[in-house]
Design goal:
Layout: H1 4-12, E1 16-21, H2 27-42, E2 46-51, E3 69-70, H3 75-84, E4 87-91, H4 102-108, E5 112-117, E6 128-131, H5 138-149, H6 158-171, H7 182-193, H8 198-206, H9 211-224, E7 225-228, E8 233-238, H10 240-245, H11 256-261, E9 268-274, E10 279-285, H12 291-298, E11 302-303, E12 307-312, H13 316-326, H14 331-335
Parallel strand pairs: 1-2, 1-4, 2-3, 4-5, 5-6, 8-9
Antiparallel strand pairs: 7-8, 9-10, 10-12, 11-12
Helix pairs in contact: 2-5, 2-6, 5-6
Bound molecules: guanosine-5'-monophosphate and manganese (II) ion.
The site of manganese (II) ion (MN) has 6 residues, from loops.
Length: 336
């Protein structure tokens, strides 16, 4: 690990910087990446945001979105940028498996690697770490890093504020999760003062659904929702055919799982989707129930206690059966 002073020295001169974030980036991943990007370019650095995969259209309005490079579409260029970087910022993930094939490129790069993240159990691949699992969003940690560590609050302009606001809004469920504190509200108030248009950002993300997404949601709730009252668990399983029927795009399944969790008394909710070459699980839980433990132990994944994910190469039916078979092990916790 290097000291903050050493990192500050590196940042004192313009250099090549890559910012990357996890597979299928969400609002926090893109908000924190483009917020940090917009801060760093003001310091004269040559910065590129490289995402391992594509990301939802409802995030494409973000400032500087057009400068983002998607690794799978520009592999050679991405490899060169990673190789030439003096610094690589790894945002909103802490395990190289979360950036797919890019993981090996980042690992082998000579650049100093800086992790800014709020997930549990970080892997040891970084040279500097700004990590706090109590933070509600990585965007909150980017704000903290710029303001309290680099003492550069003057460079949080309207664009930076907009990106960081978006990251905090999406990872906090619009400021309602238990991770939301009065300190976080003070940060959010500051971001609004600095130019983040809260109503507009909310509208761009949440009032911007395609007709297909809404009809798909209705279909999931009326036809696909299964409630296992004996385990206080609800699940929704959808096949590739369902996804195709409603023309569902990257990111458009986000949030469906929360409807299952919103049922009175439900402690654990699962959204299980068949993708092109794997089955993806999204778990959400209430209170102390450790959704991340199930994902880590049984589905090659992880995440936070109340929001976690995983995947499997088994069939949709097999994954669903496996998920149900796990529930008796957690019966006491689920019925508490
Ligand atoms: P989502 O259900 O929205 O895909 O993910 C919920 C949370 O779980 C996110 O914080 C995400 O970072 C984490 N997560 C999702 N999939 C994985 C995975 O495959 N591995 C790990 N370690 N975390 C995941
Ligand atoms: Mn996050």
């Amino acid at each position: 690990m290097i000291s903050l002073d050493k990192l500050k020295q590196k940042l004192a001169q313009p250099c090549n910087i890559v910012i990357t974030t996890h597979h299928k980036p969400d609002g926090d991943a893109m908000g924190s990446s483009l917020g940090l990007y917009t801060y760093l370019i003001q310091k004269g650095h040559h910065v590129t945001v490289i995402t391992p995969t594509d990301y939802p259209v409802f995030l494409h309005w973000l400032p500087h979105n057009s400068e983002v490079i998607i690794y799978t579409n520009h592999e050679a260029q991405s490899k060169q940028l990673i190789k030439n970087a003096a610094l690589i910022f790894c945002l909103d993930f802490n395990s190289l498996s979360r950036i797919n094939e890019m993981g090996a490129e980042v690992q082998n790069a000579t650049a100093l690697k800086i992790m800014i993240d709020h997930h549990l159990e970080p892997e040891d691949f970084d040279d500097y770490r700004h990590w706090n699992t109590k933070a509600c969003a990585t965007a909150q940690l980017v704000y903290d890093f710029i303001v309290n560590y680099l003492h550069d609050s003057a460079l949080i302009n309207k664009e930076v504020a907009t990106c960081l606001y978006l990251g905090i809004m999406t990872d906090s469920g619009s400021f309602r999760f238990p991770t939301v504190t009065s300190d976080l509200h003070r940060i959010v108030a500051d971001l609004i003062d600095l130019g983040a248009n809260n109503a507009q950002i909310h509208q761009l993300v949440y009032d911007n659904a395609s007709e297909g997404r809404l009809r798909f949601l209705g279909y999931c709730l009326s036809h696909k929702l299964e409630v296992l009252h004996e385990f206080n668990t609800a699940l929704i399983t959808v096949s590739k055919a369902d996804i195709n029927k409603f023309d569902i795009q990257t990111g458009e399944t986000e949030g469906v799982v929360n409807y299952a969790l919103s049922i009175n008394g439900i402690k654990l909710a699962a959204f299980i989707t068949e993708r092109s070459n794997e089955v993806k699980l999204s778990l959400r839980s209430a209170g102390d129930f450790p959704a991340n433990e199930i994902c880590k132990k049984y589905f090659n994944g992880g995440g936070h206690r109340n929001a976690a994910g995983g995947q499997s190469t088994d069939t949709l039916a097999a994954v669903t059966a496996k998920f149900k078979a796990i529930l008796p092990e957690y019966k006491n916790l689920l019925l508490q």
